[in-house]
Amino acid sequence: TQLLEQSPQFLSIQEGENLTVYCNSSSVFSSLQWYRQEPGEGPVLLVTVVTGGEVKKLKRLTFQFGDARKDSSLHITAAQPGDTGLYLCAGARSGGYQKVTFGTGTKLQVIP
Amino acid sequence: NAGVTQTPKFRILKIGQSMTLQCTQDMNHNYMYWYRQDPGMGLKLIYYSVGAGITDKGEVPNGYNVSRSTTEDFPLRLELAAPSQTSVYFCASTASGSFTYNEQFFGPGTRLTVL
């Protein structure tokens, strides 16, 4: 079983602060996705990164795929209460959804 | 479009009871998936289907069964409920099986408690 460990597990910050969430594995992934999940809802895809070293930006969110494609990070600048939720990373080795491994999740709370 | 819908939203079962979790998508997606989400454990794939009439086991299939008679519907059956099946269940769909180039759409989930 490939493991995707996310850290921190929980994060509570004030509005306007910056934060970084990490997703680490000992396995190499062909691509990796980040999702956000709000209470009572299913996960929603934020981004997919494919190339080692790739950086993608989505407004105040910056996603990076590690050079060796074993890890990824999500950085949020000037966090807003609307960023509150559970952040999940997910990686695939063969490219098919049946081979996807989900991370353990990071629960973020942004306090106004 | 409603996307992926799941019923019921909540259910409490007694040990040994059976139930079917319903999942329907209106996006004409070929691929559908059932996951369970346990606290601190991420999502684990139970079963998936690549089209009507075709299903296959995921990582944690024991205690569950599925069928796919139409493109739209992918029900999950629990035959003899056990406390270990207490979890939140998510159904999802994609247009094809490519993880890299297809977004996975999730339903709102079913919260199941087995007592």
Polypeptide structure, described:
The complex is a heterodimer of chains A (112) and B (115). By secondary structure, chain A is mainly beta. Chain A has strands at 5-7, 10-14, 19-24, 31-37, 44-49, 55-58, 61-65, 71-76, 85-92, 100-102, 106-111. In chain A, the strands form two sheets. In chain A, strands 2, 4, 5, 9, 10 and 11 form a six-stranded mixed sheet that branches. Chain B is mainly beta and 115 residues long. In chain B, strands 2, 4, 5, 6, 9, 10 and 11 form a seven-stranded mixed sheet that branches. A four-stranded antiparallel sheet of chain B has the order 1-3-8-7, with no helix packed on it. The N and C termini of chain B lie far apart (36 Å). The chains are: A mainly beta (112), B mainly beta (115).
Describe the SSE topology.
The complex is a heterodimer of chains A (112) and B (115).
Chain A: E1 5-7, E2 10-14, E3 19-24, E4 31-37, E5 44-49, E6 55-58, E7 61-65, E8 71-76, E9 85-92, E10 100-102, E11 106-111
Parallel strand pairs in A: 2-11
Antiparallel strand pairs in A: 1-3, 3-8, 4-5, 4-9, 6-7, 7-8, 9-10, 9-11
Chain B: E1 4-7, E2 10-13, E3 19-25, E4 31-37, E5 43-51, E6 54-57, E7 64-66, E8 76-78, E9 87-94, E10 105-106, E11 110-114
Parallel strand pairs in B: 2-11
Antiparallel strand pairs in B: 1-3, 3-8, 4-5, 4-9, 5-6, 7-8, 9-10, 9-11
